[in-house]
């Protein structure tokens, strides 16, 4: 329930509504408008390649070596984003904060990015879509990316003064996600209404469970 409702203070209760899909309460790190259905990729780590593996010391003997290393990172990042584009990936949903170089090439190759998603949001999207987070594959840039979810739409949403992301993920199960936009004059009223609605849903769950048995 926490991931499927958004409280918006400062608006009348009559402004409350139900939206299809999921509302992510953060703004795009990069937004590239796209029409129709698009492929989305879930990631849990920075996509900027590291110079060395964890626990391995990386020694730079000169400024020239350091600059060459940075150029290598930039080229690898661009190659990865280009690979995403060639696999029709138009949206990155990331629990990690992405580096500026990733955002730059995402914009260049038409890939929208939403970062810093919570583990609960990532788990919900993964459960709805049946897709596991994508793991970068090192030097193998030819492998087809199959860990993609289908999204009907991906667009900005303004809730009062807060910029959010509204996505319509296609579910692989019977559950079709909808998000409750709960409006009220102050936060306290919204908290009370949200708690009452959650208790009502729990009661309905118990009722239908009893009937089923």
From TrEMBL:
Q: Name one GO biological process term.
A: chaperone-mediated protein complex assembly
Q: What name does UniProt use for this protein?
A: BBS10 protein
Species of origin: Pomatostomus ruficeps (Chestnut-crowned babbler)
Upper lineage: Eukaryota, Metazoa, Chordata, Craniata, Vertebrata
């Amino acid at each position: 329930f926490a991931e499927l409702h958004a409280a918006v203070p400062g608006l009348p209760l009559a402004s409350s509504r139900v939206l299809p899909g999921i509302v992510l309460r953060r703004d795009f790190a990069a937004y590239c408008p796209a029409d129709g259905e698009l492929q989305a990729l879930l990631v849990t780590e920075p996509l900027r390649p590291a110079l060395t593996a964890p626990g391995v010391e990386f020694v730079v003997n000169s400024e020239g070596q350091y600059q060459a290393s940075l150029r290598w990172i930039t080229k690898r990042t661009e190659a990865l984003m280009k690979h995403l584009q060639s696999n029709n990936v138009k949206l990155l949903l990331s629990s990690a904060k992405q580096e500026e170089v990733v955002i730059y090439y995402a914009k260049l190759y038409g890939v929208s990015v939403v970062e810093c998603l919570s583990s609960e949001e990532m788990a919900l999207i993964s459960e709805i879509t049946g897709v596991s987070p994508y793991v970068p594959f090192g030097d193998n840039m030819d492998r087809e990316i199959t860990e993609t979810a289908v999204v009907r739409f991906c667009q900005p949403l303004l809730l009062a003064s807060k910029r959010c992301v509204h996505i319509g993920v296609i579910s692989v199960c019977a559950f079709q996600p909808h998000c409750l936009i709960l409006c009220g004059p102050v936060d306290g009223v919204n908290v009370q209404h949200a708690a009452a609605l959650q208790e009502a849903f729990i009661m309905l769950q118990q009722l239908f469970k009893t009937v089923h048995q």
